[in-house]
Amino acid sequence: MSAETSTSIIRLCSLSRYIMAYTPSPQSLLIIFRELLNTIIYSAGDYPLLARTHQSFQKGPAQFNRGLLLAPISVGIVLDILVRYIIGHVLMSILILETVGKQVNVSKVADKKLAPSSRYLFQNSAALYRRGGFSLLLNGIYSACTYWVMHSLVTNISTILLPSQLAYVVASVLLAETRFFWTAKTILQRDQLRFVPSPHDLRRWRALVLPTLIYSTAEAMMVHFPGLLNSRLAPASSENVTIEGLSYIVRSDILISALMLFAQLFLLLPSYMALILVQASLLPPICETIIYRPSRQQQQGVRVGEIFSAVKQGPLQIWEAAQMIGTGRLLYCLELYGKMCLCLLVIAAMVHLIVYSML
């Protein structure tokens, strides 16, 4: 998912926590499993899922030179950010838009004739690289950095008067048009941005308010809800935990993880898809995108008007975008998301192996 890139940036600022976690002990598998779970399920940057279970098993940190571990961990986090952005935002946005207007039959999801080309991770990535190089795979990344810096500033200012969860949502709504330009610079060819109307369009901002509100609310819940439940379900004392207390901690962590997985599948991902659809429908129909159809001989991308020609010309309402999110499109997005998680798991496993070999 796009917001997960900011989560990786938070992890980059918390390298000390990563380093303290690398202790040569039998609990290393629990560390990797916890990292995998927090990769699959969108969460805050400090890995809240299974946090109490991990703390119950964790022993005191080992003494070692942290400087030696800084290089592999930093490289791992940079690769994590790149994978999340390229697959979780750029390719995911392409996949969502490529399937617009296609009636996907659930019983034929595996049919290659019906499957969009962006479903195939390496094939689509290689095609984009051939057409525009690595810069095309990182389309819009400068706008992403600008958006998240502005979002962080507005959120911090809003927390003076509002709770942090509400401040996050308010900041997202206020910056809805900034996020729209991030999406536009992601899916459009660079020379097409001149056709996009200038910022501060009140009518466009109003069209973005409701889908942004729904998605940011789901996002805030995924970030803050695990920590809130952990604090309320935490035992009175963390010292000398009994077998019954440990069993309670494990059961409650499993329950929280299951709730978060359900929320991600049926709330966060569909709301993200609806937001992308509404944002794309607000672009001028003549704009050329980075979506390419294999049947075309020329090197031109599909225009926005062609994407929505079979659905509706003009801006989509949130309920119209929601109706377009069928089971087939959702399964395609889940498949791509699963491939992204697999790539992140490979990166994490390599970093763990390198770190353990250096201890």
TrEMBL record:
Keywords annotated in UniProt: Membrane, Transmembrane, Transmembrane helix
Domain of life: Eukaryota
Ranges annotated as spanning the membrane: 136-154, 166-184, 254-278, 336-356
Name this polypeptide is given: Uncharacterized protein
Organism expressing this protein natively: Aspergillus kawachii (White koji mold)
